[in-house]
Amino acid sequence: MKARVRDTAAAPTSVCTAVALSLVLSLALAACGTGAGGDSGGAGGPRIGVLLPDATTARWEAQDRPLLEKRIKELCATCAVEHANAKGDVALQQEQMDSMITKGVDAIVLVAVDARSLGTAVAKAHAADIPVIAYDRLAEGPISGYVSFDGVEVGRLQGRALLTAMGDKVPGAQIVMMNGDPNDPNAKAFKEGALSVLDGKVRIGKAYDTPQWRAETAHMNMSGALAALGADAVDGVYAANDGLAGGSIAALKADKVAPLPPVTGQDAELAALRRIVAGEQYMTVFKPFGPEAAAGGAMAVAAARGQSLGKVATSRVPTRGGEPVASVLLTPVPVTAGTIRDTVVKDGLHTVAQICVPQLRAACARAGLT
After folding, report:
1. Are 199 and 228 in contact (CB under 8 A)?
2. Residues 61-65: contacts with CB within 8 Å, 24+ apart?
3. Fold exhibited by the domain 17-149+288-331
4. Which superfamily does CATH assign the domain made up of 151-266 to?
5. What is the mean predicted confidence (pLDDT) over 156-179?
6. What is the pLDDT of residue 12?
7. Same CATH topology for 17-149+288-331 and 151-266?
8. Backbone φ/ψ region at 25: left (φ over 0), alpha (ψ -120 to 50), beta
9. What confidence tens digit (pLDDT) does each residue in 212-271 have?
């Protein structure tokens, strides 16, 4: 039987990326030692499953997966990482969870396609003494740890930015809300945060939930909103992430809306940063994937070794129908054209050369990116 991970050390409730990184570093240094809790060496090292939700959102395969794998290997040279992507299919992810349980992996990092539906699979892993780290999305069931960003604050940042961008049109401005996947608990947190800022200050002409965060669905819904409200009656667009922003902007441009209303976003995707420089998208929210993956990888290694997750955690988050679990909640960062250099470029997510393609040279100069 595997040793079940028990979180015995309650962590302080402050949320701070620097603290999280310091604690992760401490765990990394501890991992260099030998004796109890160390690697068994050779091919007998711990096995960690990494289950991602879809290939639609660029960050999962381009950022989170390589960063998680890198951090796990840094902390545990003999750890083996087994990866699978559910491609937006709940049933497929349940099968992938079953496969990891059958293989007897030592820990699972899970980004749930549907938090509620995966609760049963999480319970099965728990019964098999396999700890599950909920990554980015708070999965239901008896998880052992949770790593993410403050989702409500993400929504607040988006809402505040939209109000700022609409300027004199507030109060009384009319917006369209392009919310995320209703099965993603993060989408609910984003919406909650945005509405806490926007309620009473704008009219919500149309609001849509977007299953699986599909940009093409956002395009279709925005086209419908323009037909219903009028192309000149949309003063702003709340888009929960950059994919939805891209779909919404494509629909606005297809309908010849000019000038484009301000549009929010999230994830600091390269395409979104180019749209921001070009003046098509107003802002995005940067969630530094490095610290998130560092904390997620540290939790996974600690869990696989049967160690307390309290050494990594910076807070404790209540779970649905369960006890609070060891958690790391990181701070999101708003990004507009004038702050790209001091945020995503400074952090190393994208380079100026990647953002400033030839057709954007003049716009990049205006944004201070030359």
Report:
1. no
2. 61/85, 63/289, 63/293, 63/349, 64/111, 64/135, 64/136, 64/289, 64/292, 64/293
3. Rossmann fold (3.40.50)
4. Response regulator (3.40.50.2300)
5. 96
6. 39
7. yes
8. alpha
9. 899 999 999 999 999 999 989 999 999 999 999 999 999 999 999 999 999 999 999 999
